[in-house]
Design a protein that fits this description.
With 437 residues, the chain is an alpha+beta fold. 36% of the residues lie in helices and 18% in strands. A hairpin with an 8-residue loop joins β4 and β5. The structure holds glycine (GLY) and manganese (II) ion (2 copies).
Length: 437
């Protein structure tokens, strides 16, 4: 759990960055309808969660640095015994102050009357423009309310600034508390992958293996951090495969890309293993290229290295391996220059990881790749995807899709792999699959 004082520290830091003549406005995620009157499971907006830990919809945070009567103001739903009997308890304005550490809280229904007064006199508004069109229009209306009062001396803001530059820079550096949650999230996901490996048999359906993953997630109080990918055989070559409804065949590989979300923190793990428990020589040859690439890439996840260094390391090992296997021909450097590997490896080697699976934060600063620093967390996920109709490839390699993905913390020293609770060495996977749960 993240302590209330950590949320307070984040808000203070953001206010310091925004400046004493600014106001920061962040909205909670709206509830979303799935069909008719059924909703999607509610997930708080990551930025709103990062700054408040407040789990309810219909809430707006206003940070007003230096305001004597209180800098941190939350608009939220009022207590309502009748509604709470149906939907469960609400914090109410009192809980927002007492439990969540806000300086002050007002009913969300009063926001139109109160927020313009908080905007008045502020030079700059920091806000996520364009994320929620309905909320954009409300913000414009509040600003216009201030403008309409100008002849009475009201001072409307002059600058509207994207909030993401400040906030997403903060989110890049994970605190000790955040790393604790991310480790837990990765441990749960790793346990789910182990269970999936042990359950897999030829003749089962992909959705049965998905059920094994979900079982472990829910057992530990987690949910999937994205729709799990459970792709047998050539389905492993479909990068965003989501159908998860095909039969698993003897002799095929199974690619599982599944992560947990624990207290809003994501993990993101991929393993690729044989449905029958033994890699064929061709599968093993390709697998070991990806594994070597992944290990070389992880070794580049170090403070001081630019973000793209680990991708380059993976690409080099993959290209060398493909030449050795005869899937590419010609000198290594020429193949690298011409990006020849892209026929079989078409995505990047990783991304930031945190509250979002593809977490917030710029990858480049002033046009240059950002340098890794302690506290950043990335995925390392090279792959090889030999399409069933790949041209100029021996038939025995076609239809094989492999990815190996781990979650790695940048530290002062060695890269810290937090998803190592599930094996990735081919021999270790075969040994694990030979054991019965
Ligand atoms: N599961 C999404 C990704 O690997 O980036
Ligand atoms: Mn993934
Ligand atoms: Mn990923």
């Amino acid at each position: 759990m993240i302590e209330p004082r950590e949320y307070a520290r984040r808000r203070k830091q953001l206010m310091r960055m925004a400046g004493s003549d600014a106001i920061v406005i962040v909205a909670a995620a709206p509830e979303r309808v799935r069909n008719n009157d059924a909703h999607y499971p509610y997930r708080q907006d990551s930025d709103f969660h990062y700054l408040t830990g407040f789990p309810e919809p219909d809430a707006v945070l206003a940070l007003v640095p230096g305001r004597a009567a209180g800098e941190v103001i939350l608009f939220c739903r009022e207590r309502d015994p009748e509604r709470e009997r149906w939907d469960g308890p609400r914090a109410g304005t009192e809980g927002a102050v007492d439990t969540f550490g806000m300086d002050d809280a007002f009913p969300i229904d009063d926001i139109d009357d109160i927020l313009p007064g908080l905007i008045e006199g502020r030079e700059r508004v920091y806000y996520h423009f364009g994320r929620d069109v309905d909320f954009d229009l409300r913000l414009i209306a509040w600003v216009n309310r201030v403008r309409a009062q100008m002849r009475q001396g009201a001072r409307p803001p002059h600058e509207f600034v994207a909030l993401s530059h400040l906030l997403h820079d903060l989110r890049l550096y994970k605190s000790r508390g955040e790393l604790r949650l991310m480790k837990k999230s990765a441990q749960i996901a790793a346990a789910a992958h182990v269970r999936a490996m042990q359950a897999t048999r030829p003749g089962m359906n992909e959705h049965e293996i998905e059920a094994e993953l979900l079982h472990v997630f829910r057992k530990h109080g987690a949910v999937p951090s994205y729709e799990p990918i459970v792709g047998g055989g050539a389905n492993g070559c479909v990068l965003h495969y989501r159908a998860n409804n095909a039969m698993l065949r003897d002799g095929d590989l199974l690619l599982i890309d599944a992560g947990a979300e624990y207290e809003c923190y994501a993990s993101d793990i991929t393993r690729t293993f044989p449905v029958n428990g033994r890699y064929s020589p061709e599968q093993r040859a390709l697998y070991d290229i990806v594994l070597d690439a992944q290990r070389a890439a992880i070794d580049e996840v170090r403070a001081g290295r630019p973000f793209d260094a680990y991708h380059d390391a993976a690409v080099r090992v993959i290209t060398r391996g493909l030449i050795k296997l005869g899937l590419l021909s010609g000198p290594l450097e020429k193949n690298l220059r011409e990006h020849a590997y892209r026929a079989f490896y078409m995505h990047k080697t990783g991304h930031w990881l945190g509250l979002d699976v593809h977490d917030a934060g710029d990858y480049r600063v002033d046009g240059e790749y950002r340098v890794l620093e302690p506290g950043m967390v990335v995925t390392v996920e090279p792959g090889l995807y030999i399409a069933p109709d790949a041209k100029g490839v021996p038939a025995k390699y076609r239809g094989i899709g492999i990815r190996i993905e781990d979650d790695v913390v940048v530290t002062d020293g060695e890269p810290l792999v937090i998803s190592d609770g599930v094996p990735k060495d081919a021999d270790e996977i075969e040994a694990l699959m030979a054991t019965v749960r």
